[in-house]
Amino acid sequence: MPQLLIELFSEEIPARMQANAARDLERLAREKLAAEGLLPEALKTFAGARRLTLVAEGLPEAQKDRHEELKGPKVGAPPQALEGFLRKTGLTQDQLTERAGVYFAHVHKAGRPTPAIVAEMVEQIVRTFPWPKSMVSGTSKLRWVRPLRRITCVFGGQVVPFEIDGIPSGNTVEGHRFMGDRQPFEVKDFDTYADGLEKRCVVLDVEARKDRIVDAAKTLAFARNLELVEDQGLLDEVAGLVEWPVPVLGDMDPAFLDLPPEVIRTSMRVHQRYFAVRDPKTGKLAPHFLTVANIQAKDGGEIIAKGNAKVLSARLSDARFFWNEDRKTRLEERLEKLKGVTFHAKLGSMYERVERIVALAGELAPLVGADRDRAVQAARLAKADLVSGLVGEFPELQGVMGGYYAEAEGLDPAVVEAIRSHYRPQGPSDAVPTDKVAATVALADKLDTLTSFFSIGEKPTGSRDPFALRRAALGVIRIVLETRTRLPLKRFVSGEVLDFFADRLAVLLREQGRRHDLVAAVFALGDDDLVRIVAKVEALDAFLKTEDGANLLAGYKRAVNILRAEEKKGPLPAGEPTQMGGAPVEEQALVAAVGALDGVLDELIDSEDFAQAMAELAKLRGPVDAFFDKVLVNSDNPAERDNRLRLLARVRDAMGRVADFSQVTG
Amino acid sequence: MSDAPLSFQGLILKLHDYWSRQGCMILQPYDVEVGAGTLSPMTVIRTLGPKPWKVAYVQPSRRPADGRYGENPNRLHQHHQYQVILKPNPPNLQELYLGSLEAIGIDPLLHDIRFVEDDWENPTVGAWGLGWEVWCDGMEITQYTYFQQVGGLDVFPVAGELTYGLERLSLYLQNKDSVYDLQFNDEFKYGDVYLANEQQFSAFELEVANVDVLKTQFEEMESEVRRIVGSKGRQGQPLVLPAYDHVLKASHLFNIMDARGAIAVAERQSYIGRIRDLCKLCAEAWVESQGANA
In the prediction, which pLDDT does B3 show? Predict the structure, then answer.
């Protein structure tokens, strides 16, 4: 069965958009083909610097003929309805059939040839492609990510003819911009396409490009007794910048190695898209870099290596200028400048933010167990590097540079560490600052972010979270849990922010395999100590997985249902249940079992031995089951009924001290 | 590359020759201070409206905050941009551009030429476009943009803009580390012409400029723009071009105040917004008058 090959050839597509573009192309093609009843045996897409490619194997030559039965108006409906139906179906009245008083039309639709559908599909895809940003060029209104130059569309060896805004489809393809022969070549199928491209210096598959980069880069490094510093994000980007990747190793002036390694790496990565290399013996950066060129240069890459080295030198000279200048000013002296830095139009200056963080840090320090003076000092200086030259140049080095400057001033190591790491954790895989002073400042930073933005109504909605508040809340939770800080959250946040924390904690625990409803059940008690909440959730989770736990939960629900039903009739009887003479043994046993929990349960909860508290609750399971089995709560004798209701209320309340079991599903 | 590297003026002459052969008018630099070649009315104003436009020109570009007293080898208070505008952009603009690189001696089989995503925008003139930074061996040598909007208005037909950084390009071609060492021609060096400018203007723009005066002048320019653009010429047209000159002056005054450290970060946005509004006034008036003339 025939093969379909499509290439959309354009000017350079931004690297960061390519992977999504390949996925979108595949999705759109699959949707359209499926809607038309054309199922390929296989379909694959590729994206690179100048082209999006699709190949579908084993498509039928044409759609199958289709028979459809269309329901028409009722027999005896107004004549206009029938006329309309006949117009729509193109039939005459005697061609309709009648069934149960309704007209039906049988329409035969001849299957259309696949190329006609492909032509339609390509046009649809081109006109609706979901580029994050698109443009027009020249005098054409056709939108594409950059100018669309050529459309190749071959089905079963033949061109599928169509034209989109003056761009005709064809069967020719261009190779590498410089290393191809600059002449388009003809293709008849995917093999001639991929081979032709390879011969003209285009590696079609991004994975193949990455492999080539890594292999060649490692080989180059190895030959010089160096080691490539791998960087997946950079590799992904570079593989989208070149069609014919040729790594080139260049030299860096070793004098730059006195700069902080973060500065060198950031300059290489962000400005130049270079890989760093290190000395495998010391693990330290080596005075070289790896750039990935798009050509196999005639001179073996010597000029490219030299040119790039020159650019890197200029970049690092700039960085060194800032590094030297920055260290002439103490962080303390920079604070004044923060008054001129707007944190947010509605939230005042960065200086005001620092004042808030300082106040928070002072309050948090004893709770975290940090030295208060150091925490306050670190909080005061934590944002000062924002007005330093290097951070102006490399915003991603905020904190890191502050740490270096604090170190250069000879500040206390705990203060240095806190300045350096107070932005952490910056993502789920980033480590939490565990040093107490650092943890304090990190908490203060994030709590201020959360309360400030919530106070001006800037809360995350759906996928929008421009101020990364989810990350901030998760950061607080992770720091508190990992440092086991007993933080009365309500002293610092309230209302919506508190609920936000509950949500984030639920998400975190769910990711760790805990049940969402258990977090809600524990949160409902109004506790605000995250460490205790998590301990309770864990104990509860373990308990509910036992048979006793599951059964007790069922008993609890039954008790609560009865109490609710009775409450509707009138107020529940107040007071404690008593051992009534002549009561069934099951009732007596439950009264005794609940009574036995008195004191014990509170003590265990106070000492936060939740596992044991659950074990105590488990002792209720037998008596509760037996009670419901043998005893009728709604006794005709009002005294009996009241006592039994009091008993059930006691069971509910005892369990309620650990969690709100009514929020637990199951 | 050919035997002797191009001098600074040789580079300009080669580009003039090349773009002249592509049908561009070779214009003279605009005589009001601008921060970039784009801001010249020959780009900002003339890319608006339906008429074709093909120009190439050198534009001295003043960036007061980048002044380094002539002590830094490549940071300058004033550098030179080579600006090419083709409206509508021809379909082979990329090839034409690469041809210009070959014309100045950059062999794409020896040098690594790359088109790296760069979505250009200039908020002070409400302009944006999509395109790339063009890299030669890791160095940005050109900003390549398909203008989509200027002054908040759609640019259609689309204008292609090429902005070459002449000092950088020249440093590369002459294999020098400092702009002051560049051969301007066979006899003179770049430093012979511009070192004194850098030394004096850096001191002026970073230390001596009178902020109070600048502020007053800014406000005067602002109200002048509104007055001028509202005035009519003899043929009944709004006086867009003189009004726009005053926008440029306001913009330059703002840049000096910024270099003096007199603009708090909070104020910045408001200043930029004010300039953008003025620019928009001019753009709208221009498009309206073009529509009337068409």
Answer: 65
